[in-house]
Design goal:
The chain is of the alpha/beta class. Helix content is about 45%, strand content about 15%. The chain is elongated and about 65 Å long. The two termini are about 40 Å apart.
Length: about 200
């Protein structure tokens, strides 16, 4: 079960509601009552009033829905994912906000790092012979960008997209501008390239 949050999500999306057509169940209700895995995605965009609902669920074995208290199924697992740690605001994600302490205190954190091997395999599938070179280059670019305080973070989405563009015949400068620099100034892009030269493309 998955819900994706933004700051407009209403409480009934979690608790359910009654309308002219009858009782509206929710994904959270189905997971809570019958078991399964529930993912609250983009949790750091969740409004505080919805966090408060989850506070009650995470701290107890029963939860109050509009039609009564319901016991938590023993195989109900609640997961939350976000782009930030929920501790402070991040300028890369301006619409995200810190978690309320009482919500964060109920979570067990898992730091989900990118998988370099999987990234290499994806790049290799898109552009044979270049998987390792592209993944290594992107990793070094991220290190240099942080050192130079340049707002550039290359994710596997960028490296795989870059590999696909190069495989389609796009020239390196255009492919980098579209998939990697994404709005950086020419000077910033050139500074990163000078520090981490782009590998020779095998086609």
């Amino acid at each position: 079960y998955t819900d994706t949050f933004d700051n407009t999500v209403p409480e009934w999306k979690i608790q359910g509601t009654l309308n002219a057509a009858g009782w509206v169940r929710t994904k959270f209700r189905d997971c809570w009552e019958h078991g399964g895995v529930y993912l609250g995605d983009e949790a750091d965009a969740m409004p505080g009033r919805v966090q408060t609902l989850f506070n009650a669920a995470l701290a107890n074995t029963e939860f109050g829905f509009p039609d009564g208290m319901v016991k938590r199924h023993p195989q109900c697992y609640l997961l939350f994912a976000g782009n930030t740690t929920g501790l402070t605001r991040d300028p890369r994600y301006p619409d995200r906000h810190p978690f309320d302490f009482s919500f964060r205190n109920r979570l067990t954190y898992l730091n989900w790092e990118p998988d370099p091997g999987l990234e290499r395999a994806w790049c290799e599938a898109a552009l044979p012979g270049m998987g390792t070179a592209l993944q290594t280059w992107a990793s070094r670019v991220n290190q240099q960008a942080a050192s130079f305080k340049i707002p550039c973070v290359l994710t596997p989405r960028n490296t795989v997209g870059l590999a696909k563009l190069l495989a389609e015949g796009w020239e390196q400068p255009e492919a980098l501008a579209m998939q990697c620099w994404q709005g950086l100034t020419e000077e910033q892009g050139q500074k990163l390239l000078a520090s981490v030269p782009f590998p020779t493309v095998k086609r």
